[in-house]
Queue: 2 jobs
Job 1
Amino acid sequence: MATQPLTVSDPEGQPIGYVVGGSLQSTLRVRLTVPPQTIQEGSFVTIRSGNWQFYGTVVDLQLGATDPRFADEPSEARLPRGLVDLLHGQTLYTNLEVLPKLMAEIGPEPGTPDYEAWRSEHPEGGRIMSVRTVPLHHATVRLAGAGDVAEIFGEPSERNFVLGYTREQGHPIPIDLEKFVQRSAGIFGATGTGKSFLTRMILAGLIKYDQASVLVFDMHNEYGYDDIASDTREPVIGLRTKFPAKVRVVGLGQDTRIHGRTPDFNLVLAERDLEPEDIEMLTRELNLKETTPTTLAALVQSFGDRWFHEFRQMEVGAEETDENGKKVPAPNSVAYWANSVGTNVMAAEGLHNKLRRLFEKPYILPDPPEGATIQQVIKSLEAGQHVVLSFGKFESDLDYLLVTNVLTRHIREAWVRKTEAYRADKSKNPPPRPLVIVLEEAHKLLNRDLAAQTTFSTIAREMRKYFVTLLVVDQRPSQIYDEVMSQLGTRISGWLGDESDIHAVLSGLADRDQLRGMLTHLQPREEVLVMGWGMPMAIPIRSRRYDERFWNEVLGKTDLSIEEGLQKLGF
Amino acid sequence: MTINFVEVHRQIQQAAGEAQREQARLRDEFNRAWETLQTWADRLPDLGRRVEQALRYNPSLRCARPGQEALTTRVPAPPAPTQGLLLAADGSNANPNHHDRIPFGLINIGLFGYDLGHHRPPQELIQSEVLLNQDLYDDLGTIGEERIALERDLRERRALLERLRDETVTPLVTLTDGPLELYRQPREDPEFHARFQDYLRVLTALAAQGVITAGYVDKPQADLVVRLLELALLDEDELAQAGQLRPLRGITDRALFGQLLQPGERSALFGLQSTTAERFRQAAQGQLELHFFYLNVGLAGQPKVVRVEIPHWVAVDTTAVTILHGVLLQQTQITPNRRYPYALIRAHELAVVTYQDRQAVAAMIEQEWLNQGVVVGEESEKQRAKQDLQSSSRRSAR
Amino acid sequence: MTDQPLTSSTPLEIGRMLRADTTRCVVGCRAGQPHLPPLGSLVRLPVDDTYQVYGVVADIQVFDDGLTRQVVISPNLDPSVILDNQYNRNLPLEIGVLFVGYEHNGRLSHLLPPRPPLVLHVLYTCTPAEVRRFTAHGRFGYFRHLLRATDQPLAEVVAAHLQQAQACHAQGGNPHWAREAARELITLLRDDYATLATVLSALADTELDL
């Protein structure tokens, strides 16, 4: 499995201090016996007390003195070095605040007769549970060793996908992909914190693990094919490149090319795929009037699922001269239709004008060609493939909002149907394949105004009832509706500059106060805090690098092929 | 108790009046003595004659004899000698006490050697002698305090002689506290005579070695020179009553020379006329004849006059007298407030036998007596009662 | 006296005990003792064949008397007089010793001696081997006796003691004794800022390599 990227200089399970106080309700106080710089906030520590082992994270470091005068007085100037060290060693100290999260009965010291007896009574070892008592005074606190980390976070495997490494000692920290997809999850971080790399890695893990299908709304065409990183100008490998058979890159609109390449297939929306709520959802984007629902209802009343097609054909202001020489609305005009159904002409004409931006979209056709439909996407997902929907040149918010919503609504409906069939007769119908929908710039769809209207918030709330969950990727979590935020299971967050974003990421979690500190102090790059329902306990990690080595590890290659080697050398 | 203050006051008033009259008389007499000193300063042969005349009537006459120097001679302080050895001796004794269970006596002699050139640190020497059994008795029974004092003085001088026998540095100066004459009136018993002869032999030996020997009298009460002046004041026919007629009674030599001598100055050398002194004069071809001079070891405005007794062989040696003069001034300046020779202070300190010392020796004796099975007499009840009163020290260890 | 080694390789008889209480004693000896144990040094007072008491010199008092008071005001003091008073004269010198432990039947203890020595018991200096043995016994338990003596220049006594004992330990090949001792002192005194500051300041003035 993953080799550790950091030099391990400390022996495993190095003692760092002993418990001096604290409470289960808050945190444990630990007197540090090593220099404070060797420990960081968020360090994963173990506390051995009797037959129990406790696991927790460092949430604060505090400088203390047995007498404030020892701290006030800079004795370095008056006393020789050795004496100062001795003095400070005893009068000045650092206390850690450790947030205990888990505990396990691990029995007496291994190797003792007591341990053998205990082992025979507990053949499978101790069970890890939430912390519900405290260790004794003076219990030894250690930096968690690789074994402790594995005990809590699991041994790295395809299912336990290594997301990064502990900051001090570089022990691998995996996430359980099985749990990860069981609830909607989120990846957050300010721009430049490596969100999209992290997303790529998780997607690679999910695809490799292959127990769920992934649908990526790739607004900026980053995930499918190889790309150039915006900041470093380095080539970035796309998922399709590494999983050519499993990943389908879908281009929005006919003849759309992505990075100059023809996608695996194209997606065109059929006019009948659109429903009035899809339009209502665009109220703000299109600056729609409050009369819109009425008009839309009249349209559906008149034309059924062809409403969009018919409305699209109408013209505003088309007139003809009647027998009396008087100008009247032409039969193909909006006013004509409005008058005929008794709805407000002005409102209908206004809506038509506003919807003109949609009518002009080339990816909405009366009849999409075979193999370029929503059904095709659903089929691919059902077949166990993973879909990256690249928006190509349709990069506006309008495109994004409309397409993601329409597509997701249809997909969800499909999964709801399959789920109900499965529930109705489990012997005949297989369970639907779990699906993860990856939502870039999620706040555009999940903000307070829209959340209620889109399918996404429904999915987030439903959790895994219909085997569909979201993976929300965003740099402004505060803009996401807090009801949605609080439903997120696993949360992975890089550095966030804005207090409201930090608050949002932590919403609905216990120990928010402690986690806030860890989140605030993350390095702006390559460090993330992993927390939430999917994790045994929150832990800050140094994230894996998305590079050749990552792919070698994920794809199980231990050595570079000759070609890749030559390529790396620039041939 | 009530005091009759009226009566007491009357008596005090009366006494004060008498004291005032006495003081006035003494003042007058002092002035008279002073005038006589000035008048007779250089009439030394006359004075000598008068002494001889008076002696014819009164052989036990005690007074100063004029020497070669005028009565008002003032010899200024010489520089302190920078070489030689000063040896001071002092003795102390514990007398037999009939309350002791085992009677004993103790003589302790302290010698203090002071290198005048400061080439070596001072030396201390202590000689202790316990008198037991037969030592405590003579033909007349238990020996008395006088006899022990005599033994002590004799041992002092003997110790000086022994210490100096092989000494090669010069000059050698010895100093003892008190007159060179022996302590107390001599008794005409054979034991005393024998001791006195011993003493004279020691002095003779010192003389032979040329040791500058001196006795130091710290607070002289004598009126030897005053008595000499009285002889001058008497008419020729009154000389027969010399010693009985005392026109200057109450005036001391000390007062007279306190007026005459400036700090550091010594007086003229005088001979000592007394019956005891006569015995010294008759020995060793006159070498041991006693002389003296007065010396002001005090400060300006605070005269302190002491008498220094020297034997003949020193008195005739001008250099020796000068050295002695210088040594004594140097020694008395070491303790500015006390003005007493340092070497003598130290010799006394070495010699002194304290009560505790005496008790320790008594305990040692008793222990040994017991060890050897000698029957010990009972301590007297009186002694035991006194002991019980000696409360032990309750000082804390802090 | 500075020419003297800190501790003699053979025990030297210094003086005899004058008085004592539970925690300390006073030993009398002659002034001008050539081997006077320095402040802070470890000493012992054998009581009998099986029992001896250990102490640390915490106080040395030199007494004067009437003569020294006389001599001291002399305008020009002869060298002979100075030497005489320093070395000849029987002026008492009292050594204050804090009890720090005892040895009974060959077993050391850092507790206070169960009973103090008696009057006139002899005070000896300790050899380096004895110093090493006593000071390395246990975990510096005897320090509490030193630190209790607040009526003494405690910091100076402690610093002097560490310096001398370390010299003995260095002879025995242990360069770290004083460092451990200093660590223990800090532990004992860390709640007493004023005393600790004084002790550390005194330690800083030693030549100990801490």
Job 2
Amino acid sequence: MGIEVAIACAKAVVMLLIALQVMAMGVYFERKVSAIIQDRIGANRAAIFGFAGQGIVNTLVADPVKFLLKEDVRPAGADRLLHTLAPVMAVVPAIAAFAVMPFGDVLEIAGRTINLQAASLDVGILYILAMASLGVYGVVLAGWASNNRWSLLGGIRGSAQMISYEIAMGLALVGIVLTYDTFDLQEMARRQGELIWGWLPAWGIVYQPLGFLILFAAGIAESKRIPFDLPESESELVSGFFTEYSGAKHLMFMMSDFVEVVLVAGLVTTLFFGGWQIPYLGREGFHFPWGSTIALPSLVVAVLQILSFSVKLVFFTWLQIVIRWTLPRFRYDQLMRLGWKGLLPASLANVVVSAALVLLVGSRA
Amino acid sequence: MSIPLFLVLAALTVASALTVIIHRNPIYSALGLVSTLFLLAVLFLGLDAQMVAVLQIIVYAGAIVVLFLFVIMLLNLQVEERSSAAPPLIGAAALGGLAMGGLVILAIVRTQFGAPVPVHAGFGGTEALAERLFTVYLLPFELTSLLLLVAIVGAVVVGRKRA
């Protein structure tokens, strides 16, 4: 009993640490990638004993400490309870969503077989959708509780945007569920270890290229960052729904943004790029299609898989940050048109085509 | 689900539900509704109904109440004035409430509770739910989707610009 609880806690901590470490790397990329794109040097000043680490000290030590030490200002007329509650409601669902994300296959150790997933849920994908849909309350409440018109406009824009893109996101997931015939993310990741024609890994991107594009676009829209940052939109709304936030609460909104970026990266990785899979790596080691094998112990395989998952997470976090610094912001009507007239019909078509293919060829199960 | 856990969750659910009707600020009422629906989802989880719990959050807490909040903010509804209803109305409401409570208690007293039945593996999961939904309850399911279609068409008609 005690050891079971300890294992469950350890798995949760490992997943949380992976997510938060990648988030921190995302913050670093945000500063440095933007600098490179705009031909600047970027954060490089703050240093500890002369060590600046290419801006790592600046972005990951100096900035957070500065945020935490700043005065927490609450505007007059703001709703005391909701103004404080809103940042929490933004960041908690985003972190909670990682519970069902598988970060490795199984670890066989001391006679136990440990499933490397914090919570093995039969309805994993729907759970992530549910948590993503709860994230909207942070935005809406921040906008309302601040007693500021810019904030309110940002909050209203945010709620409309997130609801619109959730629909496309949910329908994009239907295609992948049809392909793998399960809602469980771990099961999906395992099925992506199979091979097509004996050499091509059966990753989701092979079956659902359109689903990937829709999910990625809708995911970026859900994280409310450029080009979808209408709720924030600093040229029109000062800073949108979090105009009236300072110090640690402001930091929590920033954190929820970046955690959502990592969540989208995790979702894309798990559904379309094999999750923790490394091509040809099975539970006993590598089995190459040309016949040679390399046997590896379970611990090494698990570590390789966790590394593989983390590297893919970092890559897709980096990709989202490059997109964010490359594209300009949409106008509000363009945003709604893309969501309702672009992504929604495309995702519906994707569902129909996927269903027809599954009917004719059979699913991967 | 253990009894103490259930009691705590049930008390919280009732408190949230009371917030919905008692609080004077419409935003807090809507949030009380979110909290009620979320806690109901947790209670469903305790009954091994994972699918229903998650759908409850996606559909109600994640979409419908967000639209409530959206409308409340757009209309900029203020804190309600406390107004007292006419005495006969209060009397009728109290009588109705008491009668309803009496009915519920009567129903609980009259029911013969059997021993708890162990659930089979996969109970409340997607497959079990889908199997019932698409075999035994196919007709009600399809009729409901027809009803939803009518509602969507109605929304489009109402939302269209008048020519």
